[in-house]
């Protein structure tokens, strides 16, 4: 069957319970109630602090077939996922599902756990590195589920992703289970992606290398939701949080794109007092923020808030009085961690608050402008941020589809050619974010406006911006580099790409190893 953007979705997929094809960004309404975890009690004399993960596994007990969840705030510095899965393997457990909000190269040991039958399912929002490569070539018997950040929060709240045990890497904890991410030797900042896990999992285990005096302050995740606390030697390396891309680009082409994107934002008329903004951590996105900053300073504009994964650059804008608040679901560098711990206007929020479509209003709905990237875009403005030009999984939506749906204006910034391949194609290999939620594409060769936004096109032309039809940009790219060859894939579905509302927007098929 075909979904609303014309993608072929099988009526049944082995290992996936219910197939609901994507029907439109705002077409699906919830008909359900929120789920609830088990009700428990604890006596005044009971202790939560235990000596080892093995002891925790036996106390709960963790059994075959359970779903274990983890957060990714340590990114490529995480030490807890591998530690917990090694314990599971040591105890002979099988058929576990790993619900890890994002997978990084450091999580490569998952591959052996899959081969040994310890892990048979993976549910995540983003993948890169060896695990992503192995998934693409058919590592799992059943497809991996790729969600959005807001979609994961929704799935946990609504019972679609039922978590038996949440293992929370906690930079700081007290003996009774209060947790935060801003203290201890491995401070990582916001713990926002773990908030839904802590709220809805049947059991919650804090894994920490720093025990503070009770009561811990501040408290990000409270003692009322934490069953056990395990002290280990090291939960992770905060240096691994920094992705390496959280710096403003110095590339002349990237700077040209960023400057044009800032002029696009200016032409919308949205840079005014109360302006709400989100940008990614990539070099071109941060450069766009730098140009926007100059405009705000020139016109003495004070924005209401900046949102999303927070970088030191956004911290500096807060401390310079350009924004009144930061709303932080994930810290991207050490300055973001420092700010969250010291500035009361730097707010820690959960993934559901940030972007879940099934609540009384998430933060992305209040955005004026969001700046996003793309691996490729098609002439219907659908965007791929999941697979590369070789068909291998190299990312995921994260908050991409969420922010695009919520913002008044969604701008994609991208080089017209990526690795000598045109970014604009007739049909993206993997649809991640639907074109109806993408308003503008900014490249070094011109600006394309979604036909649904004729109002923006008029403003951009009036501002003298280099507006071009998307087909014109596509032809220009192909004249330079030629038309890209189609990627050959097999029949096996290795991943399903879920839209934020739980419907399936696309599938990823196996590539040759």
Automatic annotation (TrEMBL):
Please provide the record's keywords in A-Z order.
Cytoplasm, Lyase, Transferase
Subcellular locations according to the entry: Cytoplasm
Q: Which InterPro entries match?
A: Citrate_lyase_asu, NagB/RpiA_transferase-like
Q: What is its EC number?
A: 2.8.3.10, 4.1.3.6
Q: Which reaction does it catalyse?
A: citrate + acetyl-CoA = (3S)-citryl-CoA + acetate; citrate = oxaloacetate + acetate
**Gene Ontology molecular function, alphabetical:** citrate (pro-3S)-lyase activity; citrate CoA-transferase activity
- Asked if the Swiss-Prot or TrEMBL record annotates the protein with the keyword Lipid biosynthesis, the reply is no
Q: What is this protein called?
A: Citrate lyase alpha chain
